[in-house]
Amino acid sequence: MFETYRSWPTERLEARRRAVVDEQRRLHSEELAIIAVLDERGRIDVSAGLDGESARVVREKVETARALESLPEIAAVAFDGRLSDEQLSQVVRLADEESDAEWARRAPNATPATLGRLARSKTKPTVEEGRARHAARHLWMKWDEPRGMLRFGGELPDVFGGKFEATIQKLTERMRPANGQPWEPWSARAADALVLMCDAVDAVERIETPMAAPSPLFALDIPPEGPAEICGIPLPDAMVEQLRASAAVEPVVTDEEGFPGRCGSADPVVVTQAGASSVVA
Given 31, 127, 174, 258, which is the most exposed site by the fewest CB atoms within 10 A? Predict the structure, then answer.
């Protein structure tokens, strides 16, 4: 399929995409109308997924379908293919029967983010609610040692959340593959964006204090036997060598109990003996 489209001229591709998008939107509007009737008959379970979609997506479709019944002008615009799924799900939260015609006219020219912001602004939060959101911010981290993966999560309030989301999205969209290489999933590139932010902080610190000795970026634990470790996670030899070439690494020789002993310099050399990795100054 991809090779077929690569043979098409750009103008034909753009026209075909426009036609496909219009049809997708029309079919989505038709699906919502069907969902509204099935919902009336008790045939939609919003607590479960449907046709490979998550329960959250199904719930959002049902809520949009219910709202559209009292918004005929917006429903007509959606059926004509002039509203994206995102625009439609946001504008039904914003409009009511009195403003139906107005938002049917305005929504196709507004971004989903703008419509969502206007919908949220209909109910102004109190100062106490804003303080409560800020106080509830948190971040947790935990190592999954068998898998060698750091798990994390948390919540950010309003402004913090918006700033974080916008930054991650901007960095992720900039991460394009090399010519001829496949695209990584968005989630993988977003994870890379987080690491890129860490690198940026380290770079700023070096610029602000150019005469100061840089702190080690990684402390490698070197047990008497076995591979080198970071945070208790064993690393393959090749990865240790890569860190040595691209980052500041401080080797820390540990005893059998894991307690630190001698520390080496921040410019280690990787030595592999009998299948075990070690780092010496």
Answer: 127
pLDDT of residue 203: 73
The vertex-116 CA angle with 65 and 196, nearest 5°, equals 120
Q: What are 252's strand-pairing partners?
A: 221, 263
> pTM for this structure?
0.53
Q: Record the tokens describing residue 102, joined without a space.
A: 């107005």
How far is the C-alpha of 209 from the C-alpha of 194, rounded, in Å? Answer: 23
Sign of the torsion formed by the C-alpha atoms of 15, 20, 25 and 29: positive
pLDDT tier at 198, thresholds 50, 70, 90: confident
pLDDT of 273 above 60? no
How many other C-beta atoms are found inside a 10 Å radius of the C-beta of residue 257? 6
**Which of 58 and 121 is assigned the larger pLDDT?**
58
DSSP letters along 4-49, please? HHHTS-HHHHHHHHHHHHHHHHHHHHHHHHHHHHHHHTT---TTS-
Q: What is the DSSP letter of 219?
A: E
